[in-house]
Amino acid sequence: MKSTRRTFLAGASVLGAGSLLIGAGMGRFGRAWAQDAKTLVFAAAGTVTSSWDPSSHTIAPQITAEALVFGRLTKCLMKPENPGEILPDLALEWKVIDKHTLEYKLRQGVKFHDGKEFKAEDVKATYEYASQPSRPASAWYPGQVEVEIVDDYTVRLKTEKFGYPALNFWYVSAFLPILSAKDVADPNILKQRPNGTGAFRYEATKGDQIVFKANDAFYDGKPEIDTLLWTYVPDANTRVLGLLNGQYHLTERLEPEQYKSLKAEANIVTNSSLSSENKYLHFRCNKPPFDDVRVRLAAVHAIDRAQVLAVVGEAAKASSSHISPVKFGYVDVPDYPKYDPELCQKLLAEAGFPNGQGLPEIEYITSVGFYPKTREYGELVAAMLQEQGFPVKLTTLEPAAWEEQIYRRADGQGPGHIIDVGWITGSPEPDLVLRPNYYSKFALINGINDPEIDASLDKERNAETTEERLKILQEETLPLLAAKVPSLSLFSSVFLRAMSNKLEGAYFYPNGPIDLSKAKLG
């Protein structure tokens, strides 16, 4: 039977209440085993891939895991009041030499986990290897780059040979992990075991659990947490129950009603923060019916984002932009497509599908257990589309299976027609979102191939000043994406977390990673 928004919303209210009761009622039971003050157990919502090479993927949970192990040239805390602030990490100073050159003065006395001293050769090896177009994560980079070694502790990033300004790395350098030159020389080593300069070193993987140990030689002092157990727990209720019964110290990506319930728990501390993640519905733009912009726009005009926000609650913030408010260049686009059933029907008729007649079955793929409320608002969105004549089939998968469906494959195609996914990066740099998703060379999920979008992305990338670039982003690039909708940005995510009140000193980055270098368990 075809669902409607009315029947769905009634069901969602019951489901929300049930989830709340489960979290509150069962949390008092179970045997606590995470009692060692030197061992922290993190219940993670996502898993990692089989490769520890950071250039081999764009998977958000793995980026969170890698942040424990790897250092970067700089750090960006991305606080909403000052998202562009840059702080030292492996580089202590940085400056613009000319249009195509950035210089970094490196921290001395830092060692990789295998004991090798960190030097300029490692920055050169990392950037020149990972920015190669053949690397799966090369879309993180504005382009290829050459690194000049001035001395053991000074490097210059040079982009003239590749035709774009070096200023594009100003924020990106806060996101890209620094690898050992010795490991880069043998990529098989990178895949098997991460070797960074971060506060924690990789010890072992045991089933769904990863063991990290404190780095005795960490440049900012050995962490008080001696052992960090990363435990993959795909079900949100299980994560909450484990936190309440003492099995876990920290968990992430809570459902809104769980977050509200946990606020009332005396031994639990909750945390919420605006993230650098937007949630999108990506249309597979390189196969019917969404290869036609009119059909994409029709689908967008069928979706009432205000109702989606009502379902997601505290885990979302309204926005009308393809980037998060903590990104450089963010603006709410004035003409962002809005809910308009009449315009939806007009566009469908113009595209040759009056009232949806003739459309193929459309598979909408989403996850459950990683992002809040995806099943609930997925059912709502499917019902909205069905009301306008789109024959939608909703497929709901656990995170590991869903991750296998997200990206386009070797033939350029991907499963399904609409993909629900977030995109999150640890830098204010907007191109970390825009180029991987909307530049034809990459278009990792939606497969858009649009010369006009490419030209706009190149134009903003090649701007010689931040002021000029800001203007292009806000007045040209973001409005163009809104007009051609290779994806619909539903909202900006608000991260909901909870932890034991014994845990102090954790810092939560807006892209998911957690700085536990100064944390302790009381």
UniProtKB/TrEMBL annotation:
Q: Which InterPro entries match?
A: Peptide/Ni-bd, SBP_5, SBP_5_dom, TAT_signal
Instruction: List, for all copies, the residue spans of the domain called Solute-binding protein family.
Output: 85-440
Cite a single GO BP annotation.
peptide transport
Family, according to the entry, reads as follows: Belongs to the bacterial solute-binding protein 5 family.
Per the UniProt record, the source organism is: Mesorhizobium hungaricum
Q: What subcellular locations does the record give?
A: Periplasm
A GO molecular-function annotation: peptide transmembrane transporter activity
Name the PANTHER family on file: OLIGOPEPTIDE-BINDING PROTEIN APPA, PERIPLASMIC BINDING COMPONENT OF ABC TRANSPORTER
Sorted alphabetically, the keyword list is: Signal, Transport
Q: Name one GO cellular component term.
A: outer membrane-bounded periplasmic space
Q: What is this protein called?
A: Diguanylate cyclase
One Pfam annotation, family name?
Answer: SBP_bac_5
